[in-house]
Structures are given as structure tokens and as C-alpha cells.
Amino acid sequence: MYLTLRNILSTLIGTLGLAFLARAISQEDMGTLTVLTLIVSFIQLISDFGLSQALAKYVAELKGREEDFSAYFLSSLTFKMSAALLICLILFLLSGSISSVLLRSLSLYELVRLTAIDAFLSAFIPAFSSLLLGAGLLKRMAACNVAYAATRWTAIVILVYYGYGVYGVVIGWILCDLFSTIIYAAASARLVKFSGNLLSNSARLIPFLLKFSWPLLAASTVSFLYMWYDQALVIAFLPLESVGVYNVSRKAFRVLAGIATALGQSLFPYYGMTYGKGNHKAISTAIKKASRYTMLIVFPLTLGLFSTAKPAITLFAGQQYESGWSVLAIMAIFGLTYGISSVLMGLLIIYEKTKDVMLLNVLSVLFSLLLLPAVGMLGLNGLAVMRGASLLLTLILNIYFLSKVVEVEIDKETFIKTVTSAAIMAAAVFFMQQVYYNKFFLPIYVLIGAAIYLVEIRIFKVLNSSDIHLFTQILGERNAILISKLMGCDLNDKNLN
Known about the structure:
This protein is mostly helical. It has 24 helices and no strands. Helix content is 81%, strand content 0%. Helix 13 (280-307) packs parallel to helix 21.
């Protein structure tokens, strides 16, 4: 609940900020920022060594057993800080060469140096975030994330508005990461219990954590390549303007992916604590139950984005990015996988199947490479097809590996009803745009689509009394009664489940 609300607020802030930025700087500058983001992401990957995922797993598990996890956090933070400092110093010293190769201009070396400073500061945040996630403090984590998004975009907008351009964006990153590190540290302070032997215990744990996390690093490296290979191809062979167009399309899609990720993260603490108690049947039940709600939410969002991709990207980023609408539409279709994959998020790590995580990502990348000929025929759209196909394969492999350790079942009836309802809604919205298209009518398209979807959900009776009782606990009785009337549910029907 809290992570979903966080994502909605963060997404709204990011959408408004990016809409301003896309209009305030050139497509070439947007491409430059994509390259710098790639550098920061790579440094975060190497300095993290997979420890953030391991930390969240052990914190959740130890909390379920009511044991102290302070040493695990400190050992993870110590290693990350040391590794990030070393890597960022190297980047700072080689800024000229890196600027010439990646940014195609030696004069931008100062941007690379500023990026090195930001990369060091940003390395702290995942450790604190994993601590809060593993401890189940989702409300606190959500508040920190929203503060991060608000600070980041406020700083960027102010600096760009006053004419600092792409330099202002990177300085905004630095100010935000410095502020966010302080906020996260304050939010996590009481979770760490300082004692006389804390330092020695944390030092002894580093080899143990690294032994567990190295397969996660390998998997994360493969995942990093998988996440960035499409943009790397654009960076290598096309002008920075094309990089900017493709990046904006991907960012628009990540709004949707972020919502699915938030839904999945909200289940992680429960999965971890339940695994710590050895209750595998409860995890299987949770997967099936949660899939009802993720499909109910994600399917209409993905197909709705597919049907409104053109007005969405032009209104979102400006007319100069209209050519990216087909990329966004293709990604949105494959985004249907998030309706199921979000409820499986993190389970392989909880079950300590880190090598399976690595293999899953390797196979996904290899499969994507088989589709390289599509890039030659379809251009940027071919890259979107590669990205989408890999999402589908990742879901299939995730289910395959998980089914070996825990029963995986989704609510099939809800799947059929929600995907049918979402498809009808998307077709209706698409038809409306053929009758009369105006990008400024996007809110109207969305409202009409939402109304159609809600009517279909009521007709198909997707929600039942058990869902309304759950909403009562989460949203309060008044809101639950309103939803029950809207959906035509009978609260007194105890036979529904």
C-alpha cells in the first residue's frame, strides 16, 4: 500500500520534472544525460556487489526469527563505501578519456567529474533502502523515496531554469543524493543497535556476505547488460539525438514498470519473514492471492498505455519526441508480463537460488541477442521488440525455477477476466482516437477508458466479498463500502473467496 502510494507520488513528480526537462534542453543533451546515467548505474552495480539484495533478504529473515541484523547492515555499508570510493576516484582521474569516448567531446570532462561525485554519494542509498525494506518499514521507506524524488526534481528544475543546462541537472543529482543519504540515515538510525563488538562482527561477516552475493553480482551484471544493451547500441551507432528519443520512450514506459515494482516490493518483507518461519504453503497462497490484484491493476495500465502511446509521449515530452510513440506502444504490450512477474519479485533470492537468478538473466540476454536482425529491419522499434521479448522470457524462466522450490499458481479466472476487460477498453480508446485525435484530449481518453474498464469489472464480477473485506482493513470501512457498491459486490456473501 505505502510503496504503491510512494510510486504514484514519485511517478507524478518525475513525470512533471521530465516533461519540463525534455522541453528545456536539446535532444543531444538528453542523450548526454543518458550516457552519464549509464556511468552512474555501472558504478552502483560494481560497488554494490549484489549486497543490497542480500541485505534485504537477511534482514527480513533475521527479523522473522527476532534476531539482530545490525552487523549485516554495517558490513554491507562498509564494503559499498570502500568500493565506491575507489571506483569513483578512477573515474575522476580518467574523466578526459571517458568524455572523449562516450560523450564524443573532451570539453565535457567536468561533467564526468561531477558524475563521479554523484556516483559515490548515490552508493549509500541502496544499503539504507534495503535495510528499511527488509525490516518491513514500508511507510518510512516510501516517505524517503518521495522526498528523494521531490528533492531531485526540484533541484534540477531550479538549476535548469536559471540556465545551467545539463550541468545543472548533474549538480541537481549531487544535491539530491547528499540530502537523501542524510534522510535515509536518519530514518534507519534506530534499527542499528550499536555494541562493543559490532565492528568486529561486521568485519567477520563481509566474507560470508560476499560469498552469498557474488552470484547476485554476476546476475546483476548480466541484468545490467540486459537493461542497457539496447541503449548501448543506440549510443554506439546513432547520434546522441536518437539516444535522447529512445531514452524518453523508455522513461515513459518505466513509469508503468515502477508501479509494478512497487507492488512487488510490498510483498518482499512478508515473503522473507514467512520463509524464515518455514511456512512455504503460506507463500504459495500469497502468490495466488496477490496475483488477483496485480493483474487487476497492471493489465489495464499496460493496454491503456498501448492505446494512448502517441498522445501520451507528445504531451509528456513534447512534439519533438513524437517519433518515439511506437517504441512506447511496443514496450507497453509486453508490459503485460508485469501483472504476473511482480508477485514473484525477489522470491528466488529469498530461497537462496542466486545461481538460478544469474542463469535466468544470462538466458534472457542470449535470447535477446537472437533478435538482433529485427533491429536492422525495424530500427528503434526492433530494440523495443527485443526488450519486450526478453521480459516475456524472464517471466517464463522465473516461474520455471521457482516451481522447483515452491508451488506457483496465479488466479486463472481473474487473468482471463482482467485481460479481456483491458483489451476491450484499449480497443475502444484506440477507436476514439481514430474518430478524433488531439493530444490534449489524453485525460479524456483515460477517463473514458477507466469508466469502460470499471463497468467490465462489474459485469464480469471480478471482485467478491473477500476482496471487499480486505479493502476494509486497508482503506477503511467507508471506502470499502463505496467500492462494493461500485463493483456490485454483496458483503454478506460468505461463500465467495
